[in-house]
Amino acid sequence: MGISIVVTSGKGGVGKTTTTANIGTALAMLGKKVVVVDADTGLRNLDLHLGLENRIVYNLIDVAEGTCRLKQALIKDKRFDNLFLLPTAQTKDKTAITPSQMQNIVETLKGEFDYVIIDCPAGIEHGFENAVAGADRAIIVTTPEVSAVRDADRIIGKIEAKGLDDHQLIINRIKYEMTKKGEMLNIEDMTDILAIKLLGIVPDDEKIVVSTNRGEPAVTDDHSKAGQAYKNIARRILGEEVPFLDLEDENTGFFGVLKKLFKR
Amino acid sequence: MDLFKIFSKESPSKDVAKERLKLILIHDRANVSPQFLEMVKGDIIRVISDYAEIDQDGLEIKLTRTGEQNSSTPALVANIPIKKMKDMGR
Amino acid sequence: MSSINIKGYRDGLKVYVNSCSYQQLREELAQRIMRARDFFTGCRMYIVDEQKNISLDCYREIENYLREEFGITLLYQKGDKEEKKEKIFSGIYEGRTKFFKNTIRSGQRITYNGNIVVIGDINSGAEIVANGNIIVLGTLRGMAHAGYNGNKRAFVAAYILQPSQLRIADIIARSPDERTEKSSIPEVARIKDDIIIIEPYLPNKYL
């Protein structure tokens, strides 16, 4: 039996879909059988992040309505044979599926896959309820902005109220230069406020835009810093102890390398 | 770097952000509505008025946290300007 | 055009559902029956829903409603071969056509039991489903499905044909993963030897 993980944030635009696509791909690269599920009915985007948008025939809503079998709606990734996408409908809205239907589908997927990663829509309404319904674990994505942290807090409260206590935080788009100057909330500030276990830190990386443009998750690019961070997160999900990326070294280039040498 | 910090008057914006967030979250988590605060205010005025003459317009009541640093326990703080104490209480 | 057409046959009345929602169907059906209550009471009725707008649950609701209110027996359309053949929309040379004069955006889905002409673009994430042909006087970026109920001679034509996916009858083609050169002239997609082919549109050469 596999594990289902919902990726959520409350606020929009903090990188839920990017996170879902990258963690899913990274887990597949580590040999796990993975399905990523888009729960953002009506505003689907996970297909774009994986570059699978032209392969969609059936979707989550079709499965819920019984128009097709679950297997027919699963799309195999073009790079990894053990990675699948369950897209949702673009022309329906979030009330087209109920939390209990969603739960059933996720349960069935858990029988087939090691990891079921669910991309939650922004907001705390119907779509959120659906996405969380079948989840065993939650990953909360936030960015170092007051609005994102506040919304993350709200979401943590919501999922705790549902008894979903296995939750961890990913801080996305950290700009090291700014945190150093004290112009951006740092990691300590956020873990202090949110009082939740940290799963990973993802540095702000312009290459993410390029990855999304091409429909190739950053983890497939060996030179991407964000990609490296997501790979580490995937390994932590598998239970490995991976130290957090040392952002200082990443950013100060030559001197960072020197410093590292002297440390040893 | 920290040396400069001592001389600069403005605290770094991330500290401002953190302080604001902490206060906001106390409100959010306590789930207190403005109506609730108004009700509390009304009741306080009623009770205190028996003992003292107070400046009702100057009365301020807000939800904040307890005095200790970094505490996230909500506390209700009221600032009640007293014009004159009434005699009957004494 | 009204959302339903009712026609009499030997074995009962057939209600043809055009593109409409369940709500519209129910309202219109009730209205029509009310107008000639005596005529309808106790009859047998089929609902022909070629575009499958009506879900099974809705069918059951209508069935109960008709039985309780008017004593009408709703029969399911039997899927025998003759019926199916009859159902395929054949008016691709001449037939009903719907025109849209705006951009069809992501999340919109247009279905029509006939041909569809869009004067504007069809954006990525939009879906155009026609039982006949689809003609786009603009850029087609979304999904287009011509000959939805089985007509393999239906075609899709667009000024700029860049769909994420094309379907004609029961055949599906997707855009290539690697970037291809854009065609500067209009293109037409149709089925040839059971695969969808795309040809440049040259005046007087097509059809």
UniProtKB/TrEMBL annotation, chain A:
<keyword id="KW-0131">Cell cycle</keyword>
<dbReference type="InterPro" id="IPR050625">
    <property type="entry name" value="ParA/MinD_ATPase"/>
</dbReference>
<dbReference type="InterPro" id="IPR025669">
    <property type="entry name" value="AAA_dom"/>
</dbReference>
<dbReference type="GO" id="GO:0005829">
    <property type="term" value="C:cytosol"/>
</dbReference>
<comment type="similarity">
    <text>Belongs to the ParA family. MinD subfamily.</text>
</comment>
<dbReference type="GO" id="GO:0005524">
    <property type="term" value="F:ATP binding"/>
</dbReference>
<keyword id="KW-0717">Septation</keyword>
<keyword id="KW-0132">Cell division</keyword>
<comment type="function">
    <text>ATPase required for the correct placement of the division site. Cell division inhibitors MinC and MinD act in concert to form an inhibitor capable of blocking formation of the polar Z ring septums. Rapidly oscillates between the poles of the cell to destabilize FtsZ filaments that have formed before they mature into polar Z rings.</text>
</comment>
<dbReference type="InterPro" id="IPR025501">
    <property type="entry name" value="MinD_FleN"/>
</dbReference>
<feature type="domain" description="AAA">
    <location>
        <begin position="5"/>
        <end position="160"/>
    </location>
</feature>
<keyword id="KW-0547">Nucleotide-binding</keyword>
<dbReference type="InterPro" id="IPR027417">
    <property type="entry name" value="P-loop_NTPase"/>
</dbReference>
<dbReference type="GO" id="GO:0009898">
    <property type="term" value="C:cytoplasmic side of plasma membrane"/>
</dbReference>
<protein>
    <recommendedName>
        <fullName>Septum site-determining protein MinD</fullName>
    </recommendedName>
</protein>
UniProtKB/TrEMBL annotation, chain B:
<dbReference type="InterPro" id="IPR005527">
    <property type="entry name" value="MinE"/>
</dbReference>
<keyword id="KW-0132">Cell division</keyword>
<dbReference type="Pfam" id="PF03776">
    <property type="entry name" value="MinE"/>
</dbReference>
<dbReference type="GO" id="GO:0032955">
    <property type="term" value="P:regulation of division septum assembly"/>
</dbReference>
<dbReference type="InterPro" id="IPR036707">
    <property type="entry name" value="MinE_sf"/>
</dbReference>
<dbReference type="GO" id="GO:0051301">
    <property type="term" value="P:cell division"/>
</dbReference>
<comment type="function">
    <text>Prevents the cell division inhibition by proteins MinC and MinD at internal division sites while permitting inhibition at polar sites. This ensures cell division at the proper site by restricting the formation of a division septum at the midpoint of the long axis of the cell.</text>
</comment>
<protein>
    <recommendedName>
        <fullName>Cell division topological specificity factor</fullName>
    </recommendedName>
</protein>
<keyword id="KW-0131">Cell cycle</keyword>
<comment type="similarity">
    <text>Belongs to the MinE family.</text>
</comment>
TrEMBL record, chain C:
<comment type="function">
    <text>Cell division inhibitor that blocks the formation of polar Z ring septums. Rapidly oscillates between the poles of the cell to destabilize FtsZ filaments that have formed before they mature into polar Z rings. Prevents FtsZ polymerization.</text>
</comment>
<keyword id="KW-0717">Septation</keyword>
<dbReference type="InterPro" id="IPR016098">
    <property type="entry name" value="CAP/MinC_C"/>
</dbReference>
<dbReference type="InterPro" id="IPR013033">
    <property type="entry name" value="MinC"/>
</dbReference>
<keyword id="KW-0131">Cell cycle</keyword>
<dbReference type="GO" id="GO:1901891">
    <property type="term" value="P:regulation of cell septum assembly"/>
</dbReference>
<protein>
    <recommendedName>
        <fullName>Probable septum site-determining protein MinC</fullName>
    </recommendedName>
</protein>
<dbReference type="InterPro" id="IPR005526">
    <property type="entry name" value="Septum_form_inhib_MinC_C"/>
</dbReference>
<dbReference type="GO" id="GO:0000917">
    <property type="term" value="P:division septum assembly"/>
</dbReference>
<dbReference type="Pfam" id="PF03775">
    <property type="entry name" value="MinC_C"/>
</dbReference>
<dbReference type="GO" id="GO:0051302">
    <property type="term" value="P:regulation of cell division"/>
</dbReference>
<dbReference type="InterPro" id="IPR036145">
    <property type="entry name" value="MinC_C_sf"/>
</dbReference>
<keyword id="KW-0132">Cell division</keyword>
<feature type="domain" description="Septum formation inhibitor MinC C-terminal">
    <location>
        <begin position="100"/>
        <end position="198"/>
    </location>
</feature>
<comment type="subunit">
    <text>Interacts with MinD and FtsZ.</text>
</comment>
